[in-house]
Write a structure and sequence with these properties.
Layout lengths: L4 E4 L4 E4 L7 E6 L10 H19 L3 E6 L17 H9 L3 H18 L15 H13 L3 E4 L2 E4 L16 H8 L14 E6 L15 E3 L1 H13 L3 E7 L6 H13 L4 E7 L3 E2 L24 H9 L8 E2 L1 H25 L11 H10 L5 H16 L3 H18 L3 H8 L4 H15 L3 H13 L2 E6 L2 E6 L10
Parallel strand pairs: 3-4, 3-9, 9-10, 11-12
Antiparallel strand pairs: 1-2, 5-6, 6-7, 7-8, 13-14
Helix pairs in contact: 2-3, 4-6, 6-7, 8-9, 9-11, 9-12, 9-13, 10-11, 11-12, 14-15
The protein binds one RNA strand of 74 nucleotides through helix 1, helix 5, strand 9, strand 12 and helix 9.
RNA sequence: GGCGACGUAGCCAAGUGGUAAGGCAGAGGUCUGCAAAACCUUCAUCGCGGGUUCGAUUCCCGCCGUCGCCUCCA
């Protein structure tokens, strides 16, 4: 089993990963709130989480990856708040929250599949864990960490020393308080006490019975409850976006550890936001892009995965259409080389030597805090072998690339296999063209090449005969 | 205002106290009936100004710029 080094947001250092249970790793990824389509920034984060999970598996760990679906808004019908996501969506679309959640969850999962993001092993829904959340709130009240108030139940942060300072710089929380301009909610004892349970308000579409009357759960409690339910009270790795550093994950830590008296999470991981054209995505700027927008720019979803792999997750990727198109070209080049080699080798690559230096360099890169850009550079080294004229090296390079793709997830083997799946007509045209070339009938040969091109098959002549590949130029598009 | 992150070639980006991976684009060349590939060569002194050091892109300070968080957003 290969060791993995990773950055931990709590200690702010890169250190060797040490699993709670030898050979296993439990991961909880904060999932999306499904009130609208997930944009590329959201999806980018799940590509990163996917690479993390694949890396551990590549290294021989038995992984349990849990990702929640937040299908409750924890929101109340209060026009002043203006942040009533699930409610707003329900009203906007004239559907109930369950239908909204279903629609956007399905779309999210479909986008993930297009990006070769593997399904998590467990995918709990918040609405199916409300009883457990209520139990957790009762426990916190019983232990003196929470108190019922007029409009809900709040966590008392003064009962958890160090609140807000696990993932954030020491002292920063005090500064936040000083700078806070938030009007104090009279129901709360402390401005930063956070809701565990909210009393229902008139018009709430999502509400449940509880010991504190009808209402809905606070945002943070669902992640504590669901992560501990499926991974245990202490688990290995918890990931989220950089925006979760405060308050979400600090709240999770406080309520979880207050309830169990145990360390909640051993490693915290946060993905930085991607920017678009050098700045933030904003609806007002019209640059909140979806996977379904790629086709219009001649790109496939997997080009976005290639682009994402080209950046470290702790630096922010700057997304531009040009960058995506560059990634598409890179992906096309890989496929072209791999498809050609696959045809020459007739589908046999042999096994990968576990001690292969290129593979070793790749493993070294990917296990160094998931350094995908460096890993890609090693894949390019393997690609050089594939492009060479030596048949043995070609087989070796191909085998290495397929091995690497267990982590990269670019579907390289599938694209290679697709090149040899020809229809009878295509096959006949290729055979006829080979005959024409042998007879030096170039006019006929060129005409046949044009015909094949029209069928999406690019033919190339090499010293070893014709090679061909499917041109994946996206034209069919993918409706939103 | 407070706290934090980032600023590397035309573009996307690795990285290190000792003169900077990889990809895309560009330029020149080889090969080729043509085309497409492939191959070879070529393309940066690391935001600005100081400081520490024998030596800094890499450490420290200041400035400028971008981004994030400061109650429900990946």
């Amino acid at each position: 089993m290969t060791g993995v080094r990773l950055y931990d947001s709590a200690t702010r250092t890169v250190r060797p990963f040490e699993p709670l249970v030898a050979g296993r790793v439990g991961i909880y990824d904060c999932g999306p709130t499904v009130y609208s389509y997930q944009h590329i920034g959201n999806l980018y984060r799940y590509i990163v989480a996917d690479v993390v999970r694949r890396t551990f598996e590549y290294c021989g760990y038995k992984v349990t990856q849990v990702m929640n679906i937040t299908d409750v808004g924890h929101l109340f019908d209060d026009a002043d708040q203006g942040t009533d996501k699930m409610e707003q969506a329900a009203k906007r679309e004239g559907r109930d929250p369950a239908a909204i959640a279903k629609h956007y969850t399905d779309h999210f999962l479909a986008d993930r599949a297009k990006l070769n993001v593997l399904p998590p092993h467990v995918m709990p829904y918040a609405t199916e864990h409300v009883p457990e959340m209520i139990e957790a709130v009762k426990t916190l009240i019983a232990k003196g960490h929470a108190y019922p108030a007029a409009d809900g139940v709040y966590f008392d942060i003064t009962t958890f020393p160090g609140y807000g300072a696990r993932l954030n710089p020491p002292g920063s929380f005090a500064e936040r308080q000083a700078g806070a301009r938030v009007e104090v909610n009279d129901a709360k004892r402390h401005p930063y006490d956070f809701a565990l349970w909210r009393a229902a308000k008139p018009g709430d579409l999502q509400q449940w019975d509880s010991p504190w009357g009808r209402g809905n759960p606070g945002w943070h409690i669902e992640c504590s409850v669901m992560s501990m339910k499926y991974l245990g009270e202490t688990f290995d790795l918890h990931s989220g976006g950089e925006d979760h550093l405060f308050p979400h994950h600090e709240c999770e830590i406080a309520q979880s550890e207050a309830a169990t008296g145990k360390l909640f999470v051993r490693n915290w991981m946060h993905t930085y936001f991607l920017s678009v054209d050098g700045g933030a995505m904003h609806k007002s700027k019209g640059n909140v892009y979806l996977v379904s927008d790629f086709a219009a720019h001649g790109c496939e979803p997997l080009a976005f995965r290639m682009l994402a792999l080209g950046v470290g997750y702790r630096k922010s990727l700057d997304f531009t259409w040009r960058a995506l198109q560059d990634a598409q070209r890179r992906l096309d080049r890989w496929r072209s080389a791999i498809g050609g080699a696959w045809q020459r080798l007739q589908g046999s690559t042999g096994a990968v030597d576990p001690a292969d230096p290129v593979k070793a360099a790749f493993a070294e890169a990917i296990t160094d805090d998931f350094n995908t850009p460096r890993a890609l550079a090693q894949a390019e080294a393997a690609l050089d072998l594939v492009n060479g004229s030596d048949g043995a090296l070609r087989a070796r390079g191909l085998a290495i690339l397929f091995d690497m793709d267990q982590v990269l997830g670019l579907g390289l083997r599938a694209s290679a296999e697709a090149t040899v799946l020809l229809g009878d007509v295509e096959r006949a045209l290729l055979d006829e063209r080979a005959a024409a070339r042998a007879a030096k009938d170039f006019a006929r040969s060129d005409a046949l090449r044009a015909q094949l091109q029209a069928k999406g098959i690019l033919v190339k002549d090499t010293s070893e005969g014709q090679r061909w590949e499917r041109v994946s130029r996206v034209s069919e598009g993918e409706p939103a």
